[in-house]
Amino acid sequence: MNKCKTRFNKTIKCAGEYIESEGCCLRHAVLFDIWIAEHYGYKVYGFKDSTIGDENPEQLKRWKRAQFHKWLDTLNEKQAERMMSV
Prior knowledge:
Blueprint: E1 18-19, E2 24-25, H1 26-38, H2 58-72, H3 77-85
Antiparallel strand pairs: 1-2
């Protein structure tokens, strides 16, 4: 059973082993890190005056996941693979 929290994304499908500490498959975990670092994903930590050091309430987690899915939906498989191969 696939436990990846991003498994329902219809654009970029799961691939690789499940990474327990990330809660995602390897592909989604790597893309999440790329999103945070290079595609303004770090801005999600400013949601409702939150800071990086704050605990992430469930509402923030859901909102952050939704923003990540929106970004994934702008990609295609080739773009995702190219980003991951760098």
